[in-house]
Design a protein that fits this description.
With 239 residues, this protein is α/β, with parallel strands linked by helices. It has one domain: Rossmann fold (3-Layer(aba) Sandwich). Helix content is 28%, strand content 24%. The protein has seven helices and 13 strands. The protein has a nine-stranded mixed β-sheet, with helices on both faces. Strands 2-3 form a two-stranded antiparallel ribbon. Helix 2 packs across helix 3 and helix 3 packs across helix 4. The N and C termini lie close together (10 Å). The model has no long low-confidence stretch (mean pLDDT 97). The structure holds manganese (II) ion. The site of manganese (II) ion (MN) has 8 residues, from loops. This is Gamma-glutamyl-gamma-aminobutyrate hydrolase family protein. InterPro entries: Class_I_gatase-like, Peptidase_C26, PuuD-like.
Length: 239
């Protein structure tokens, strides 16, 4: 395979009086540096998921707004922030398509949550409200390229291999939602000391890795975080 083509779903943003499809430069630059060819997939066209799936070799689901709880059978709590139905529908269709086509996926932050929901799991709409003990500050006030809380990596996980066998890694954190019930085909491979799920992977293959933190904001200073993208491109080439 030459440069593997990595689809990244865009988000619809109103800029002035114009709706735009946008992706963050962090993911684009990291994928290019890791040897991939990122392409933007416009939002709001879930019926085209199969066509887009045929164009790409791997799928990166990036960070973004909250996920509408109706996608996992709940009504919204007051703590819910902004959600975009078109984005949810588009990403869920793309994830289902990638899963059935055996395409590797990388999830980042919201991406980890949407992948879990698309494959049959659910999330906490608001961890501070719904977890019955004090949780950490998961929306850090520290600069975004700095880690703020630790995660424990599961022995034998792909993630632990990426992080050279470390068990305890400092990561950044910008979320108020997190994975709750795991999708049947996923396993938990990192969690924070307060029990919040921080990474999931495929149980039976190496197609899916999804982290709750933002390696695309840390990789310039942290080679281990860049290795998350290198591992993704390697998985895509081997799939
Ligand atoms: Mn966190």
């Amino acid at each position: 395979m030459a440069k593997p083509i990595i689809g990244i779903p865009a988000q619809r943003e109103l800029v002035g009086d114009t709706h735009k499809n946008t992706v963050n430069q962090g993911e684009v630059a990291a994928i290019i540096k890791a040897g991939g060819l990122p392409v933007l997939i416009p939002t709001g066209e879930p019926k085209l998921a199969e066509k887009y799936s045929q164009l790409i070799d791997g799928l990166l689901i990036p960070g973004g707004p909250d996920v509408a709880p109706r996608y996992f059978g709940e009504e919204p709590l007051p703590e819910m922030a902004e959600a975009d139905d078109r984005l949810d529908a588009t990403e869920i269709a793309l994830i289902k398509q990638a899963a059935s086509a055996g395409q590797p996926m990388l999830g980042i932050c919201r991406g980890a949550q949407v992948i879990n929901i698309a494959l049959g799991g659910d999330i906490y709409q608001d961890i501070a409200k719904q977890i019955d003990h004090q949780t950490y500050q998961h929306h850090q006030k520290a600069p975004s390229n700095q880690g703020s809380h630790y995660v424990d990596l599961a022995d034998g996980s792909v993630l632990q291999t990426i992080f050279h066998g470390q068990k305890h890694v400092l990561v950044n954190s910008f979320h108020h939602q997190s994975v709750r019930k795991l999708a049947p085909q996923l396993k938990l491979t990192a969690k924070a000391g307060d029990g919040v799920v921080e990474a999931v992977e495929s149980k039976d293959n190496n197609l899916i890795l999804a982290v709750q933190w933002h390696p695309e904001l840390m990789y310039k200073e942290n080679a281990d975080e860049f290795a998350v993208f290198e591992d993704f491109i390697k998985r895509v080439k081997e799939a």
